[in-house]
Amino acid sequence: MLWYVIQTYTGKEEKLAEMIRRIVPAEYVRDCFVPYFEQLHCWHQQNQIRVLRLFPGYVFLSSDDIGGLFQHLKKVPAMSKIMTAGAFEFTPMYDGEAEFLLQMMDPDRIVRLTYVATDGRDHVSYLSGPLEMCRGYIQDYQFRKRYAQVRLRIAGQEKTARVGIILNDDVRRETAYGKVEVPARAPGRYGAYSLRNPQTDLEPGDRVAVIGGAFEGNVAVISRVKGSGVQIAVHMFGRDILVEVPAASVRKLA
User: What is the chain's alpha carbon radius of gyration, rounded to the nearest angstrom?
Assistant: First the structure.
């Protein structure tokens, strides 16, 4: 299976992808999507997550028979008009480019938020999320606007993209002013906590109360125990965020 990138007019990406999915037989198109990313905004002390295009003007497509796909599209008047107008250009992707991009995204083709911890002087000390795999490609951080700018290779060319981030201040605001409601399909394990009968024998799978640091006031689930620290899954912003915290900052719940 080969991957291709289609360049079209900015703002017309989703319309083009939907048209391809609708009119092209499944044997010619394995996948066709427009990638997005999340960016956090604060409005009246409330965290809001916006979903924006990761690469404006680009649609990604996979096919085992690109020649057959191209010929099929030319037979459709609406697509033929787009192609004739020069708003439709196939470019093959290089080995590993599509796989890297797919690993960054979730099944909904969205690059989710990355938790970023700093030392208070804009020096990043910890990453948890899609940016972890982009460490070598990060150009800079726009902390005020809550995104990192990265350089990724698409079809052999370097492209600039944004990846949304959340900081400790966002976590504190989310805790103070109310979390995003837990989806109905999420496990019911993120309720209020009590510090009765605290325990120190921490193991993966334990439910814990976070009693210190940026995530204080949350209930989490331990995913890994690592020396004097633990990796926990905290449900915030509508999803589980994996972060490492000192073992002393959590208390095991009964």
Answer: 22
- The model's pLDDT over 18-47, given as tens digits with 9 standing for 90+, comes to 888 888 888 889 899 999 999 998 877 778
* Residue 227, Ramachandran bin (φ over 0: left; ψ between -120 and 50: alpha; else beta): left
Both tokens of residue 134?
A: 């982009």
Q: How far apart are CA 25 and CA 28, in angstroms?
A: 6
pTM of the predicted model as reported, rounded to 2 decimal places: 0.74
Residue 66, φ and ψ in degrees, nearest 5: -70, -30
For 233, the 3-state DSSP assignment is strand
Query: DSSP characters for 56-97?
Result: TTEEEEEES-HHHHHHHHHTSHHHHHHHHTT--EEEEPPTTH
Where is average pLDDT lowest: 122-131, 149-158, 168-177, 179-188? 179-188
Q: Which domains does the chain have, with CATH numbers?
A: 2-168 (3.30.70.940), 193-254 (2.30.30.30)
